Amino acid sequence: MKKREHISTIMTKDVSTIDINSTLHEVNEIFAKNKFRHLPVLSNNQLVGIISQTDMLRISFGNTFGEEQGDADQAIFDMLSINQVMKHDPVIIGHDQTIREAAQVFTEHEFHALPVLAEGKTVGIVTTTDIIRYFLNG
């Protein structure tokens, strides 16, 4: 295991993002169709936040009362915007920072994904799972 290996070696490079003007219905569909649980939120191609599957579950009744509450969830998704649900100004990591630095960030905060930026653009995302997998395989 290389102590100074860049985060870009383990990050997801083909990162899915969502525009801040999209709907929570769209966020929900993306999470339902994919295995990832975090979406960087962009406004004019600039990172402004991150929304997680946990954020969506927090506003959902379906998880509490069962599948029959889907209509209530749809109403909530209509009433709220991504901007109201997402984490604003997320902690980020630079593409040239190390895996060790990312691990340190995760130990200091209670979240599980870091958008990776290069020259102000979102170029990837790294999760706690990526870090654990790296250390297990190292």
Structural summary, described in words:
- Helices cover 39% and strands 23% of the residues.
- The chain is built from 7 helices and 7 strands.
- The protein has helices spanning 24-33, 53-58, 62-65, 70-79, 82-85, 99-108, 128-137; strands at 18-19, 38-43, 46-52, 87-88, 93-94, 113-118, 121-127.
- The strands form 2 sheets. Strands 1-2-3-4 form a 4-stranded mixed sheet. The chain has a 3-stranded mixed sheet with strand order 5-6-7.
- Strand 2 (38-43) and strand 3 form a beta hairpin.
- 23% of the residues are buried.
- So how many helices? 7
Low-confidence stretches: none
Shape from CA axes?
A: elongated
Q: What can be said about the biggest beta sheet?
A: 4 strands, mixed
List descriptors.
single chain; 138 residues; alpha/beta; 7 strands; 39% helix; 23% strand
Layout: helices, strands, pairs:
Layout: E1 18-19, H1 24-33, E2 38-43, E3 46-52, H2 53-58, H3 62-65, H4 70-79, H5 82-85, E4 87-88, E5 93-94, H6 99-108, E6 113-118, E7 121-127, H7 128-137
Parallel strand pairs: 1-2, 5-6
Antiparallel strand pairs: 2-3, 3-4, 6-7
Give a short synopsis of this structure:
With 138 residues, the chain is of the alpha/beta class.
